[in-house]
Amino acid sequence: MSHISRTPSAASHVETYKLVVVGAGGVGKSCLAVQLVHQVFDDSEEYDPTIEDAYVKQVEVDDVLCRLDILDTAGQENFSALRDQYLKDGDGYLIVYSVIERATFEEAAIFRTQILRVRELPGVPIMLVGNKCDHAARKVTTAEGEDLAQSFGCPFLESSAKLRINVERIFFDLVREIRNQRALSSEKPKDRPRKLTSKCQLF
Ligand SMILES: Nc1nc2c(ncn2[C@@H]2O[C@H](COP(=O)(O)OP(=O)(O)O)[C@@H](O)[C@H]2O)c(=O)[nH]1
Ligand SMILES: [Mg+2]
């Protein structure tokens, strides 16, 4: 895509971004997607961990109207052809772990490897997300998340689907990351520096 409209009201063509949310089971992928799309966090509702779901949301990111096609994966089909296909189809990826479960943090690298394996293009837009930052029983520090993201060469944020902390930002920053990568690959100059990390802030 070489042209992005800068005038939302005049946008007859809406940019579409396929965002794939991956990560270990139980880290909050479904809650993040539901919180973004429906603005709710319902603890009483159990999101079936085996169900994969898709969401569509039209948003403005930096004054440009765009459509987010969000695939909330369920991790049942490890290493299958299906998994490869949806990883291949994505424009950008949220790799989510839970800050209260160290094993899910360690699994983040596995998800990144899977993504890089199926993508032929260089410069894959990825955002590392440490979810459940509202929780008192934290097992993974913010600095560890930042270090991992640095080793991945990708941006990092902590989030809480429960308290709606950084929920929009993780999706919007991923869109920005995709735009940056597209601009780079079409050799357009970047217009502003990227902020790579941000801490979880309760407010
Ligand atoms: N404290 C807290 N709990 C969360 C958060 N996000 C999800 N959860 C809980 O974590 C569990 C798994 O969430 P879910 O979205 O189904 O995880 P998924 O398997 O990655 O889709 C549920 O019991 C949620 O209530 C969060 O930001 N903070
Ligand atoms: Mg789920």
UniProtKB/TrEMBL annotation:
It is found in: Cell membrane. One of its GO terms (molecular function) is G protein activity. Keywords: Cell membrane, GTP-binding, Hydrolase, Membrane, Nucleotide-binding. The keyword Translocase does not apply. Its EC number is 3.6.5.2. GO terms for cellular component: plasma membrane. GO terms for biological process: signal transduction. SMART domains: RAB (SM00175), RAN (SM00176), RAS (SM00173), RHO (SM00174). It holds the Pfam family Ras. It is an enzyme of class 3 (hydrolase). The keyword Signal does not apply. This is small monomeric GTPase.
